[in-house]
Amino acid sequence: MQKKQIVVTEGSWNLIGMVRDTDYGIEIAESAVIRVWGTTAGLGQIALGGPTNETKLDPCGTVQVPHHAVIMRIDCVFDED
To answer: In which residue ranges of the chain is pLDDT below 70?
Structure first.
């Protein structure tokens, strides 16, 4: 089961994409690094309302992150229409 999430990892990397759990850790498909948040209310604003016009996303395909490196996962609830 995949769901769109923002994942914060060690090293202060913030990624967004379709996340699924694996034996190794998590796999983030259709991922992007959130290089510039472009928000006034942090990552939660992106999770609830989607990226703003000022948000900078750097696409990076599919990423594997080990369990020990995941600090936080935020479910995204915005519509992509």
So the answer is: 81
DSSP string, 35-77: EE---SSHHHHHHHH---TT-EEEEEEEEEEEGGGEEEEEE--
What lies within 8 Å, CB to CB, of 8 at 6+ separation is 14, 43, 70, 71, 72, 73, 74
Phi-psi sector, 48: left (phi>0), alpha (psi -120 to 50), beta: alpha
Q: Taking the domain 3-75, which CATH number applies?
A: 2.30.30.100
Q: What pTM was computed for the model? A: 0.94
